[in-house]
Amino acid sequence: MVSPEKQAALAERMAALGITEDDLVEKFILGSGSGGQKINKTSSCVYLKHLPSGIEIKCQANRSREMNRYQARRDLCDSLDEIRLGKASARQQAFEKIRRQKRQRSRRSKQRSVADKRHHSKVKNLRKSPGGMD
Questions:
Q1: Pairing of strands 24-29, 45-50
Q2: What residue spans of 20-89 are helical by DSSP H?
Q3: Of the candidates 59, 53, 85, the residue with the CA atom closest to the CA atom of residue 72
Q4: Which residue from 4, 23, 114, 122 has the highest number of Cβ atoms inside 10 Å of its Cβ?
């Protein structure tokens, strides 16, 4: 399941953020979605609520209850990091990077790119022999 090193790292991170197990309400509920009978019969979905902040996390990423418990706590730490650090959080920076990549280029930038391509094409054409076919 989850290695002891990962468990220790998570406990250390939770302590650094000031999260204690007493602050958490943990419930195991029936999952939903695809998976059929297995999902409908087992309570492997983890519901986690951090009482001081009111953040609620629901995790059903895996079939294993222990793995879902680990991931729910990790997601809670990520959420608290995002709230405390704001734009400096890793999740927010990754989101901003994707947003910048998807942003449409300016007209001037497009014109410069096309001009560079045309120049490169002319340079390549100059390399050809004057006879045409090689």
A1: antiparallel
A2: 37-41, 65-85
A3: 59
A4: 23
In one letter, which amino acid is 97?
A: K
Query: In this structure, are residues 46 and 58 in contact, taking their beta carbons and an 8 Å threshold?
Result: yes
- CA–CA dist 3, 10 (Å, integer): 11
DSSP 8-class letter at 54: T
Residue 46 is predicted with a pLDDT of 95
Q: How many CB atoms lie under 10 A from the CB of residue 119?
A: 10
How do residues 18-48 score in pLDDT, each as one tens digit? Answer: 999 999 999 999 888 777 777 778 888 999 9
Contact (Cβ atoms closer than 8 angstroms) between residue 82 and residue 89? yes
Residue 131 pLDDT level (bands cut at 50, 70, 90): confident
Centre a 10 Å sphere on the Cβ of residue 134 and count the other Cβ atoms it contains.
5
The residue with tokens 């009978």 is 37
Look up residue 68 and give its DSSP letter. H
Q: How far is CA 21 from the centre of its chain?
A: 25
